[in-house]
Write a structure and sequence with these properties.
By secondary structure, the protein is an alpha/beta fold. 39% of the residues lie in helices and 17% in strands. It is built from 14 helices and twelve strands. 45% of the residues are buried.
């Protein structure tokens, strides 16, 4: 009898062990069947206000905005109501994407995700595919292993979900070198950003001996994925996710917009105190581990950084501070504008793509708490946000066939700035 009882207890215990060992199923991916991307004309201030009021009234978000137009993302349930309002008020619009889910599936069918994992086939990144965060880390590790005298990795912090924030330093070790910071992927859905940044890294390292002196005499610091939790979430659960994955004090809406969480003029225009908003600024300046890690690294570094370059998408813009308020002049605005136009010229030479240069608040909209404003505020002269391809045909869901050309444009931008800095 005792033996029988013991057997039952062991059976129950083993069942619990089995249950504990079963992996938690992945969250069911969010689908966007019938969702559309519209381009809306903003002909005057009254129209602008009416269009932006739709965000609160319907399930609408704005992906790219300038003073003249806006790209508006609508879920299927909102389309007819918004259409009636725009038509009633004679507001012109066009449909850029007529079914976002189809566009996402087209993207996912083209060499990305589980079919092309660098870690599984032991090949290098190819820039005809979008890779996972783990593959990007492996890519960095292999560069350090292959070029230990040129490359080093430092973990500057950890994300909310405990992923490492790794900065690659590329340096010849010479004294008197300039210093440039580069980051990508602060917004999760902007996949072209980490892809372009890793391309730049690869060229710097693999072709180091053939690089000009103005490249070799720079200490390069590169954070390819500023928001790894959000990036992985877009790969597995919600392709359109923007923020990090912070719990927000158990609020049912997760995530903070890291590009509203930096401390300079935090909480001002172009931000939200609503945790459910895509531009939620967080509970306070630098409330997030990802933004805090960058702040602490830059502020405690022995380097006096000459440039702070942060890559985003989309819209093909080269933007410089200040962004926290409209019409606030920067002391060296002429220098920033001139350098930006020089870089735009180099980018156009790659594939004839036009990048518009200007102050972010003037060209687009005011947005406080941005990393570029913070970079400028701590004394980094050349602080820019670069919005990569495209201008709205694909938006955030840029097909892999455009990665290489876009990455080469980002590369041209960086090399132009290295040359400008060397001449100063």
């Amino acid at each position: 009898m005792a033996q029988s009882t013991l057997s039952v207890i062991l059976l129950i215990f083993n069942c619990f062990l089995f249950i504990e060992s079963v992996p938690t199923p992945l969250e069911t991916p969010v689908r966007y069947d019938g969702a559309q991307l519209w381009n809306v004309d903003l002909s005057d201030e009254q129209t602008r206000q009416m269009v932006f009021d739709l965000e609160n009234e319907f399930d609408v978000s704005f992906w790219s905005t300038s003073h003249a137009e806006a790209d508006m993302f609508l879920k299927k349930s909102a389309i007819e109501s918004v259409r009636q309002i725009l038509n009633k008020n004679n507001i012109e619009y066009s449909v850029r994407v007529d079914d976002m889910q189809k566009r996402i599936e087209e993207e996912s069918s083209q060499l990305y995700g589980e079919e092309s994992l660098y870690g599984n086939n032991n090949k290098s990144l190819t820039w005809d595919a979008y890779y996972s965060f783990d593959d990007i880390l492996l890519f960095l590790d292999k560069l350090v292993e292959k070029y230990p005298n040129l490359c080093s990795l430092e973990t500057i912090g950890y994300s909310h979900e405990n992923r490492p924030l790794k900065v690659l330093k590329i340096s010849n070790g010479n004294s008197g070198n300039k210093a440039i910071w580069i980051d990508g992927g602060i917004h999760a859905r902007e996949w072209i950003s980490p892809a372009s940044v890793t391309y730049i890294v690869n060229d710097l390292v693999e072709n180091w001996n053939n690089q000009p002196a103005y490249i070799q005499n720079v200490n390069w610091y590169v954070l390819p994925v500023h928001n790894p939790d959000g990036y992985e979430y877009t790969r597995k659960s919600d392709r359109m996710w923007r923020k990090n994955r912070s719990k927000n004090n158990n609020n049912h809406c997760l995530g903070v917009d890291l590009n509203r969480n930096y401390g300079y003029k935090w909480g001002g225009k172009g931000t939200s105190s609503n945790p459910c908003s895509e531009i939620y600024a967080g509970s306070g300046p630098f409330s997030e581990p990802e933004s805090t890690a960058v702040k602490n690294f830059v502020e405690t570094s022995e380097e006096n950084f000459d440039a702070f370059l942060t890559f985003h998408s989309y819209g093909q813009w080269i933007l410089y501070p200040w962004g926290y308020e409209n019409h606030i002049p920067t002391e060296d605005r002429d220098d920033l504008d001139s350098a930006g136009r020089q870089a735009a010229k180099s980018m156009k030479a790659v594939d004839k793509q036009v990048y518009t240069v200007g102050n972010s608040a003037d060209l687009l909209y005011a947005a406080a708490g941005g990393s570029d404003d913070w970079g400028k505020s701590v004394g980094i002269k050349y602080s820019y946000t670069i919005e990569l391809r495209d201008k709205g045909r694909y938006g955030f869901v840029l097909p892999p066939k455009y990665i290489l050309a876009t990455a080469k444009e980002a590369h041209a931008f960086v090399f132009t700035f290295a040359q400008i800095i060397a001449a100063n």
